[in-house]
Amino acid sequence: xxxxxxxxxxxxxxxxxxxxxxxxxxxxxxxxxxxxxxxxxxxxxxxxxxxxxxxxxxxxxxxxxxxxxxxxxxxxxxxxxxxxxxxxxxxxxxxxxxxxxxxxxxxxxxxxx
Amino acid sequence: xxxxxxxxxxxxxxxxxxxxxxxxxxxxxxxxxxxxxxxxxxxxxxxxxxxxxxxxxxxxxxxxxxxxxxxxxxxxxxxxxxxxxxxxxxxxxxxxxxxxxxxxxxxxxxxxxxxx
Lengths: 113, 116
Hints:
The complex is a heterodimer of chains A (about 110) and B (about 120). In chain A, strand 4 (about 30-35) and strand 5 form a beta hairpin. In chain A, strands 2, 4, 5, 6, 9, 10 and 11 form a seven-stranded mixed β-sheet that branches. In chain A, strands 1-3-8-7 form a four-stranded antiparallel β-sheet, with no helix packed on it. Chain A has no helices and eleven strands. Chain A has strands at about 5, 10-15, 20-25, 30-35, 45-50, 55, 65, 75-80, 85-95, 100-105, 110. Chain B contains no helices and twelve strands. Chain B has strands spanning about 5, 10-15, 20, 25, 30-40, 45-50, 60, 65-70, 75-80, 90-95, 105, 110-115. Chain B is mostly beta strands and about 120 residues long. Chain B is globular. Chains A and B meet through strand 5, strand 9 and strand 10 of A and strand 5 and strand 6 of B.
């Protein structure tokens, strides 16, 4: 079955540690996205990539980094510079054809203490 | 500036009744797409329905339909015959269709509770 996988579902880290969230898709989508969602809030775009080896900052990129070495994979690193990293992180990818609707993974809930 | 507004933080509906979730938008783009997503308590965002600004007819997908009123800049989601499994957060989103920009602009969502 085609889809987007994110692992793990829950992640716990100590403050000051970097942590990498995994996102893999087998939908053959060119574009991939990372969003952050806080309780009671909508989605905020962290980074997106429209093609391999290229990515752009979204609205809240500070304290995060990404790579896109393979079409299928778009890992997100939450660095120690991110002041408030505890949140729900969603990865998405979009279709080749307009209107490029986005399809989402199950999300990773990160808790930093 | 582009913006999506969902004015209903929470809605209740009786099982088997229809419900309308409001979405208004602001954009200066001549062509744009409007999307609705469902987010159950598990967290995953599920794509429901799409409406293009130049589409002559309102979009429908099963029990979901989109009441698109271009002059009023509204794109309300109508769910017919509500089911208990429809209880979730619902998000409206928009993107311009011209160019290669695939970023979505998101509303803050509406929480729907379906009562038995």
